[in-house]
């Protein structure tokens, strides 16, 4: 809380008649008006950043003796204290002087540019200067919060009936009508990185302020000279407002970055020469006051403060080019300039593999020609149309450009040497023009479907519709069949889904899809089902997330049962060998001995649950959510809170069930701390699920270097092309049961053309 009038801590020291005697009283401030318009306190002392200029800019007044020249312990009598603050704007910058605009008093309109942005800057500067007494904000807040006894008796309507309480809340509060407004909000096609795709209920890993009974701390005006890096101040991570103004601080420790929930930080009236780059990690900041210091430049790392509304720089000998940006276009323009001029941070270390088997087991597998392994990579690559400065205001504009990001994505895919590349948010244009030709050169073929809306669009709009793309190693696997799973279409076909408002407003309006590929290993005949999906991100539609996943698994189960009825693959003596994955123990120099006699059949399957299966994608659901519980446990009760009291046929009457026996690839070592990393959310949203009855995990890709993340606000950035990171796992096929029935020999399936 700010009070523009003179602080009560020094009012008694001011003579009452100095206004009439001082020649300064005739100089009107361009923003605050004549001295009579506010409580002027007389001749201004010099700003600590540089001397005060006279009207002709010919010399500087280094010392001023006036009403503020009271003795200070440790200072010579009559010497002006360096923390005394000027009530006038700083002298004009060099650009203004060159154009002859420097004449006039320091407060004249001709001495500097006056724009609405700069007017607000000067007004806030004056209010900060008026709050230099000890604990000014705390005392003002305490005074404002005092209860005042009211003598008047409030008049109420005696005939007004009290609202009846329903489930602990009054009728009308949180009713269906009120809730409907929130739930009927427009579908967010892509998560907002400022808030994160999580529900309002408490979730682990979400960026939430710790609970505390107070959130503001006023340490202003108490002549603090030093804050040690080990100070307990940096343990107050719940703080939203911190006042360190009008002290004698020369350095702010980098540990200030621990206070991630700060929204206002006042460092005005100190002796700071530099601003710590770590302040750029405080992305919740909306007000940062650096008035009246000795700062000459600003670190480019402040460019990540995308929510900053006011950066107080007045009263500093700041670089004229930086100051000019604020004067002309305001704080957001300066932040954007710093963001785009910030050099890239040092790259992180390579992500290492986490092995789930011992070195002896791996060596044994490499020597066993009957062991079959494959690798799967899953990555939401961030569609080109979603990578905007509005969505990712903390990311340099050049790092958001598709021409820059696509090369990082392609390099990552090529270096993975994965057998299956499951990508989400791939738009039609980039799939056809970029991914297909480049990955074809590496031996991949693709299966792709965009979201259903592409059917109603033409031209450029159609090419920007994103979807799911699955690329596979064509030298090792043959595509037998591909299936599209349209959630809205499946929901319409279910007889138990009544055509209610929930169906039309919540489920049918979402055009998300899943892509299912049915594959056979060309050498062994082993079948594999790979499902690639992208689930709705809006946290207000947790029920729809559950419905979409349930519809997908129901359909995948049907597809798997039909696939099990296909005759086994007829193997030949010239079956190709796998040379694409050196992690499987084979290489182009020493391929494993998997030759078979003519006419030998591949494995057969009694039902769909016997076929190895991968279900991966961006589920937009964290561990502990209903979606995660359903996938891992195989069931969810009908009264699960994520259904949000909506009705969806048997799903909400009997609960959800599947019998695919899925398990997360990372379950044995713990889910990654995050697969989605933005300024407003860090958490795990992407998963690779596998059928545990016939597959096992050998290794998974590890997490991103923690020391790197401590210095990075969010993705995408110079090193990570998407707000999601890729996840990857190596799997081995368990031997089929020996009592599986054999089938008569059948001709092999024709070669697939691959791409959609």
Automatic annotation (TrEMBL):
For bias type Low complexity, the affected ranges are 585-595
Q: Which SUPFAM superfamilies match?
A: DNase I-like, L domain-like
Q: Which Pfam families match?
A: Exo_endo_phos (PF03372), LRR_8 (PF13855)
Q: Known InterPro entries for this protein?
A: CCR4/nocturin_mRNA_transcr (IPR050410), Endo/exonu/phosph_ase_sf (IPR036691), Endo/exonuclease/phosphatase (IPR005135), Leu-rich_rpt (IPR001611), Leu-rich_rpt_typical-subtyp (IPR003591), LRR_dom_sf (IPR032675)
Compartments in which it is found: Cytoplasm; Nucleus
Which residues does the UniProt record annotate as the domain Endonuclease/exonuclease/phosphatase? Answer: 384-724
| Reaction(s) this enzyme catalyzes, per UniProt | Exonucleolytic cleavage of poly(A) to 5'-AMP
Please provide the record's keywords in A-Z order: Cytoplasm, Exonuclease, Hydrolase, Leucine-rich repeat, Magnesium, Metal-binding, Nuclease, Nucleus, Repeat, RNA-binding, Transcription, Transcription regulation
Q: Its Gene Ontology molecular function terms?
A: metal ion binding; poly(A)-specific ribonuclease activity; RNA binding
GO annotations of cellular component type: cytoplasm; nucleus
What the entry lists under CDD domains is as follows:
Deadenylase_CCR4
Where along the chain is composition biased (Polar residues)?
Answer: 83-99
Cofactors needed by this protein, per the record, are: Mg(2+)
Q: Which domain of life is it from?
A: Eukaryota
Region described as Disordered: spans on this chain: 1-111, 160-212, 570-605, 734-756
Where is the sequence biased in composition, kind Basic and acidic residues? Answer: 168-190, 202-211
Q: What is its EC number?
A: 3.1.13.4
Which family is this sequence assigned to? Belongs to the CCR4/nocturin family.
What name does this protein carry? CCR4-Not complex 3'-5'-exoribonuclease subunit Ccr4
The species is Gloeophyllum trabeum (strain ATCC 11539 / FP-39264 / Madison 617) (Brown rot fungus)
Taxonomically, what lineage is the organism? Eukaryota, Fungi, Dikarya, Basidiomycota, Agaricomycotina
């Amino acid at each position: 809380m700010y009070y523009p009038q003179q602080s009560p801590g020094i009012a008694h020291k001011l003579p009452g008649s100095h206004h009439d005697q001082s020649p300064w009283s005739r100089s009107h401030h361009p923003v605050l008006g004549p001295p009579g318009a506010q409580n002027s306190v007389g001749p201004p002392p010099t700003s600590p950043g540089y001397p005060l200029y006279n009207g002709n800019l010919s010399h500087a007044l280094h010392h001023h003796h006036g009403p503020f020249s009271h003795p200070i312990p440790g200072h010579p009598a009559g010497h002006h204290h360096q923390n005394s603050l000027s009530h006038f704007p700083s002298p004009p910058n060099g650009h203004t002087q060159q154009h002859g605009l420097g004449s006039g008093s320091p407060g004249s309109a001709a001495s500097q540019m006056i724009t609405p942005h700069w007017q607000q800057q000067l007004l806030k500067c004056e209010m900060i200067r008026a709050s230099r007494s000890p604990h000014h904000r705390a005392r003002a807040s305490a005074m404002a919060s005092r209860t005042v006894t009211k003598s008047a008796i409030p008049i109420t309507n005696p005939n007004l009936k009290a609202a009846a309480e329903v489930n602990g809340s009054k009728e009308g509060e949180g009713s269906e009508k009120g809730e409907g407004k929130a739930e009927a909000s427009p579908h967010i096609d892509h998560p907002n990185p400022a808030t994160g795709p999580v529900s309002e209920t408490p979730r682990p890993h979400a960026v939430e302020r710790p609970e505390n009974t107070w959130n503001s701390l006023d340490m202003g005006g108490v002549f603090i000279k030093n804050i040690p890096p080990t100070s307990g101040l940096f343990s107050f991570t719940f703080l939203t407002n911190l006042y360190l103004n009008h002290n004698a601080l020369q350095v702010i420790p980098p540990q200030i970055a621990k206070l991630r929930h700060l929204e206002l930080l006042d460092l005005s009236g100190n002796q700071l020469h530099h601003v710590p780059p770590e302040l750029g990690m405080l992305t919740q900041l909306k007000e940062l006051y650096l008035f009246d210091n000795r700062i000459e430049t600003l670190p480019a790392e402040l460019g990540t403060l995308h929510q900053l509304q006011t950066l107080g720089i007045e009263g500093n000998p700041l670089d004229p080019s930086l100051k000019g940006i604020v004067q002309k276009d305001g704080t957001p323009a300066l932040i954007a300039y710093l963001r785009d001029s910030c050099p890239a941070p040092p790259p992180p270390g390579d992500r290492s593999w986490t092995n789930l088997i011992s070195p002896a087991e791996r060596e044994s597998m490499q020597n066993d020609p009957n062991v079959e392994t494959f690798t799967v990579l899953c990555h939401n690559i961030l569609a080109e149309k979603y990578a905007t400065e509005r969505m990712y205001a903390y990311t340099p504009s050049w790092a958001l450009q598709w021409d820059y990001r696509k090369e990082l994505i392609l390099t990552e895919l090529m270096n993975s040497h994965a057998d299956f590349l499951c990508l989400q948010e791939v738009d039609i244009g980039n799939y056809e023009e970029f991914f297909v030709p480049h990955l074809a050169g590496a031996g991949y073929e693709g299966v792709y479907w965009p979201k259903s809306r592409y059917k109603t669009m033409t031209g450029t709009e159609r090419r920007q519709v994103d979807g799911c793309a699955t690329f596979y190693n064509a030298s090792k696997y043959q595509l037998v069949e591909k299936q599209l799973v349209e959630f809205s279409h499946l929901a319409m076909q279910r007889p138990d889904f009544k055509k209610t408002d929930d169906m039309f407003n919540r489920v049918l309006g979402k055009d998300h899809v899943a892509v299912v590929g049915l594959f056979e290993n060309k050498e062994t005949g082993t079948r594999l089902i790979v499902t690639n999906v992208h689930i709705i991100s809006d946290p207000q539609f947790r029920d729809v997330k559950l419905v979409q996943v349930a519809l997908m698994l129901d359909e995948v189960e049907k597809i798997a049962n039909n696939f099990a009825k296909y005759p086994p693959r007829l193997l030949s003596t010239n079956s190709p060998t796998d040379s694409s994955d050196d992690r499987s123990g084979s290489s182009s120099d020493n391929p494993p001995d998997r030759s078979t006699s003519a006419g030998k059949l591949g494995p057969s399957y009694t039902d769909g649950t016997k076929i190895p299966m991968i279900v991966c994608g961006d589920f937009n659901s964290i561990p502990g959510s209903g979606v995660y519980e359903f996938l891992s446990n195989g069931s969810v009760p009908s009264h699960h809170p994520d259904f949000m009291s909506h009705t969806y046929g048997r799903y909400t009457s009997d609960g959800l069930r599947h019998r695919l026996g899925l398990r997360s690839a990372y379950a044995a070592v713990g889910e990654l701390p995050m697969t989605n990393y933005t300024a407003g959310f860090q958490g795990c949203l992407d998963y690779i699920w596998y059928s545990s009855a016939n597959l096992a995990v050998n290794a998974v890709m590890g997490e991103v270097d923690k020391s790197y993340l401590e210095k990075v606000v969010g993705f995408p950035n110079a090193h990570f092309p998407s707000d999601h990171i890729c996840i990857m796992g190596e799997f081995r096929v368990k031997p089929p049961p020996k009592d599986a029935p054999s089938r008569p020999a059948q001709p092999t399936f024709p070669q697939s053309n691959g791409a959609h």
